[in-house]
Amino acid sequence: MCAGSVRRPSSTSKAPPGNKMYDRVMMHDGDLPPDLAKGHVTFVAPSTAGVGFAQGKGMTSRAGASSDCVQFLSLLKEPKRRRVLSGSRRETYPAGAIAYTAEAPDYAIVVERGLVRLYTGDPRGRQATAFYRHGGELLGVGLVKRPSIDLYVQAVTDAEVTSLDVEQLRAMAGSDVEVSRALITYFANVLAHAVRIIAVRSLGNITERLAFDILDRACANQLVSGKLVVRASQQQLADSIGSVREVVARSLRRLREYGIVATAPNLVRVLDVERLEEIATQLSAD
């Protein structure tokens, strides 16, 4: 979405499958946040010591989810950074809000704070996560070519973003090597993140696959109820990831012991979504 615009739902707007649409909550038009203006936005990940699990060993080592995050503005020198940020607007979204819908114009934001999710969905309400973005990272839709599938952006936590002028960013990329290189770095990072998600879902251990399944279900439920909650039995979770109930029960117990989730019969409540996302998108070293 171009900077400075506010898209409100109309009678013909297509809301995300099975979910309601949220208005944007716009911040004032004051000065840009100092960290954004200087390109020093950093994402401080929760401690990753012992976030992974190894059977019989408890926690194992894993590369932190922030270790390969690309701080987009830091890739640009000051003059180019100022040009990219000119005409931008700050926006804030509460947890569970839809920041972008499939029928909105092309879109580019720098996440200042929070965790956001890009996903696709179908008319039956099914969803699939493409990737997550953290503080300092760029998220764009249609910067080069409009995607042929419907995409949506969800604020998983309370989020603050800077919405960039897409046309200006696109024009700079076409004439400026430094900006083009920064965008290529961004696209390479997005590809790597998406590949890791595929790897976790097919090659990850039980806890990693379970974490992804819980996170995906909880995010979908958040769009409807506003809560990161999964209503499913242990058997249903096991069937979803190709495991058995007894193994899933052990992984859930470990997640619960480390304060990442709370459980009750046929219910899982996410307590620490950032740590859960780390597990769900990073293959353990072991």
Keywords:
286 residues, alpha+beta, Jelly Rolls, Arc Repressor Mutant, subunit A, 35% helix, 21% strand, disordered N terminus
Description of the molecule:
The chain has 286 residues and is α+β, with helices and mostly antiparallel strands. It has two domains: 25-42 and 62-201, Jelly Rolls; 205-281, Winged helix-like DNA-binding domain superfamily/Winged helix DNA-binding domain (Arc Repressor Mutant, subunit A, Orthogonal Bundle), CATH 1.10.10. The chain is 35% helix and 21% strand. The chain has helices spanning 34-38, 78-85, 166-175, 177-203, 206-225, 234-241, 245-257, 273-281; strands at residues 25-26, 52-54, 58-60, 89-93, 98-100, 107-113, 116-121, 127-133, 138-141, 151-155, 159-163, 229-230, 261-264, 267-270. The strands form four sheets. Strands 1-4-11-6-9 form a five-stranded antiparallel beta sheet, with no helix packed on it. A hairpin with a 5-residue loop joins strand 7 and strand 8 (127-133). 40% of the residues are buried. Mean pLDDT is 81; it is low at 1-15 and 18-66.
